[in-house]
Specification:
Mean pLDDT: 85
Largest sheet: none
Number of helices: 16
Order of helices and strands: HHHHHHHHHHHHHHHH
Helix content: over 70%
Structural class: mainly alpha
Strand content: under 5%
Number of strands: 0
């Protein structure tokens, strides 16, 4: 019987001890220890600069007067800090038409985007949790509608609304905005994962009606998805340009997108006044509500996008 020597055992223990730090350093990347990627970091930095430079240009040039816009570097301040003066001139120019455009846009967003979100929630929940004949056909129609761009439907919509006598009215912008195929599809998929079928069956066995089950049980679970759809529809309605362009002729019903374009084109008309400083300031005021909405609802939006991405 051979007894291993003490020196051999000691050397073995030393080699194991030396290998432990190397094993710890070679642990696979995780959420706590992400793998560093120089190329990905550089690409992210380029995207960040590409996103922030136009915003910085807008903020900086909103502080300049009309002559300073063309006589100074675009990405730095110059001369008199005229931000407050530009804001006052923007909201008072042409008898305060900017405020009218702002109220019109808020009306279109509340009625159009709010209605589109409501219809998407109701339709998505019904498609996700109820079985009925023709459900596959509805799915195919929704997918096809998502693939069709809105500009392709603008002219047929105008012809239909013209026959109905609704052009040049707010309804010509609100009613088409109520239809959001992407929002319906998003709520459909979200409701399928966020609401357990067993939970609905338990509520029905306890005698709860379908309306009470939806309001008390399903609606709180759909909160993140509702906020996500609301953000998408709100941004789409707020930035809508082509539909109001072909539907509206009266400037008093213009949204901000059409109004700012009219101000920008004013300098090219005969006898028109160049008010580029007001256009830039108005553009800054226009994006502030969207930025505020994203900052306030960011956590709901992120959780809504991530819901259902992890399989348990």
């Amino acid at each position: 019987m051979t007894i291993p020597s003490t020196s051999t055992s000691t050397s073995t223990e030393r080699s194991r001890t030396a290998a432990r730090p190397m094993m710890r350093s070679r642990r696979p990347p995780s959420v706590d220890r992400p793998r560093r990627n120089v190329i990905l970091t550089l690409v992210t930095g380029v995207v960040l600069v590409y996103t922030l430079v136009p915003l910085a240009w807008l903020v900086i040039n909103a502080t300049k007067t009309q002559p300073s816009l063309f006589g100074s570097f675009g990405l730095w301040f110059s001369g008199h800090f005229a931000l407050w003066d530009n804001i006052v001139q923007t909201v008072t120019y042409d008898h305060g038409i900017f405020l009218r455009w702002l109220l019109n846009t808020v009306l279109y967003v509340v009625a159009g985007a709010g209605g589109a979100t409501l219809l998407a929630v109701l339709g998505g929940y019904a498609l996700a949790k109820f079985s009925f004949p023709g459900k596959r056909a509805v799915f195919a129609i929704v997918i096809g509608a998502v693939a069709v761009p809105g500009t392709a439907l603008a002219v047929p919509t105008f012809l239909m609304f013209s026959r109905m006598g609704l052009t040049n009215t707010p309804w010509a912008v609100i009613i088409p905005s109520l239809i959001s195929p992407f929002g319906l599809y998003l709520m459909w998929t979200f409701a399928s994962e966020a609401i357990p079928t067993e939970l609905l069956e338990a509520a029905r066995m306890d005698g709860a009606s379908e309306l009470r089950t939806f309001v008390k049980i399903s609606l709180p679970l759909l909160g993140p998805g509702i906020v996500t759809v609301l953000l998408f529809t709100m941004v789409a309605t707020w930035n809508n340009y082509f539909l109001p362009l072909i539907m509206l002729k009266d400037p008093t019903w213009y949204p901000l997108t059409l109004g700012l374009n009219a101000w920008n084109a004013q300098a090219a008309t005969a006898g028109g006044e160049a008010i580029f400083n007001l256009v830039i300031t108005a553009s800054l005021l226009t994006i502030l509500p969207l930025v505020t909405a994203f900052l306030v609802l960011q956590r709901f939006w992120q959780s809504g996008l991530a819901a259902g991405s992890v399989k348990e």
